[in-house]
Structures are given as structure tokens and as C-alpha cells.
Amino acid sequence: GQQVMQIPQYQHVQEGEDFTTYCNSSTTLSNIQWYKQRPGGHPVFLIQLVKSGEVKKQKRLTFQFGEAKKNSSLHITATQTTDVGTYFCAENQGGKLIFGQGTELSVKP
Amino acid sequence: SQTIHQWPATLVQPVGSPLSLECTVEGTSNPNLYWYRQAAGRGLQLLFYSVGIGQISSEVPQNLSASRPQDRQFILSSKKLLLSDSGFYLCAWSVQKTEAFFGQGTRLTVV
């Protein structure tokens, strides 16, 4: 079945550095969703992108959807220790919700 | 408002014993329902999803089964647990292609 590939698997940064995680698909995505899972917690929805080339911002987080709707990225500017967790992208196919492998972010104070 | 209940939070079961995890949703009708498993430090593996009562789609051949006896109830079961069934089990719901909401999860340890 269709898979969403996410890289990198792990990212260790110093507090204040930027962070980016990428999702790629071999086929066109109908939408892309982003979730954050804190250590020991459950995934929490962050945002959904549906339009080609769409860019959305939430404070220090910037989400992009590629022009061909085959890739997406999440960029965090000036990371803080509260950003620690695993970030997942996902495609909701209207019945089937498929997640990327996730990027685990650790932030060193 | 919508809420999702998943229980128990933790469970320790011996190998060969049965399993039943229940998930219920409140405040919405005809949701899509999902069961995921997450191994330690790993991603979310979709086990089952359901778009309606009695409609179950299985994603991965395994020792587990799912049922949806009511619109807002989703049950994950096993007749005989294996050591490899240990993990963090998450139930979730969504409406069509909108955001998904997750339960608190059940941490299952098979010993």
C-alpha cells in the first residue's frame, strides 16, 4: 500500500537551533497532517494541509506542502526544550490514516 | 464536545492469555475508528480501521482481531497473546479526512 516516508528518524539539537523533518510520498497525497507525540503521551494533531504549495505557520512552526503534493515539511525555528517529542506526518485517506515513521526530536538546553 | 475513552492504561498479561481492549467515542456519529500499535521508540503501525458498524479492515496479518459492535465502540482482541504483542496500543477516531483524535493509550506487557 501507499507509504509516507519520513526523515530523519532522530534529530538532536542544541536549544535555539532550528529543526526540520520531511515527508515524502511516491504518489500524490490528498492531504498531509502533522502530529506531535510527547514522551509517554499520545499523538496530538497540529495541522492539516490540503492545497498544493500551501504554507501554514503556528508561532515558531512552519508547515509546507509541496507543489506536486508529494512531499511536506515541518520546520521549527529556535527550538525550545518544550519542543521535545516525536513528530509524525500522516495522510488521511478518508477511512485509512497512514503515518510516517516519525522524527524524534531531542533538545539539549 | 467529543471525547475518546480507552482503557486500561496499563496491562500485564501472561503469554497465551486472551486480550480485550475497549475504546469508546462520545459526541460524534459514524466516526472512522482506528487501532494502532507502537513499539518502544518506533512509529505508529495501523492494525485495524473501521468506517462503520461491522466494517473492519485489517492492515497487518497478526494475532489480533477487531470488532465494532456499536457505532462508537471499537474493541481489540486476541485469543492467545504472544510476547511480540507487547507494545503501546492507541485507539483513534476521525470524521472523513479531518484530524484524528487519540485515546490515552494502553501499555501492554506480555510476560
Compute the average pLDDT of chain A.
95
Instruction: Tally the beta strands of chain A.
Output: 11
Beta-strand content estimate of chain B: over 45%
Q: Spell the H/E element sequence of chain A.
A: EEEEEEEEEEE
| Main pleated-sheet profile of chain B | 7 strands, mixed
> Could you tell me the number of beta strands of chain B?
11
Counting copies of identical and different chains, the oligomeric state is heterodimer
Question: Given the structure, what is the number of helices of chain A?
Answer: 0
Question: What would you note in describing this structure?
Answer:
The complex is a heterodimer of chains A (109) and B (111). Chain A has no helices and eleven strands. In chain A, strands 2, 4, 5, 9, 10 and 11 form a six-stranded mixed sheet that branches. Chain A has strands at 5-7, 10-14, 19-24, 32-37, 44-49, 55-58, 61-65, 71-76, 85-92, 97-99, 103-108. Chain B has no helices and eleven strands. Chain B has strands at residues 3-7, 10-13, 19-26, 32-38, 45-52, 55-58, 65-70, 73-78, 87-94, 101-102, 106-110. In chain B, strands 2, 4, 5, 6, 9, 10 and 11 form a seven-stranded mixed sheet that branches. Chain B has a four-stranded antiparallel sheet with strand order 1-3-8-7, with no helix packed on it. In chain B, a hairpin with a 2-residue loop joins strand 5 (45-52) and strand 6 (55-58). The termini of chain B are far apart. The interface between A and B is medium-sized, with 24 and 25 residues.
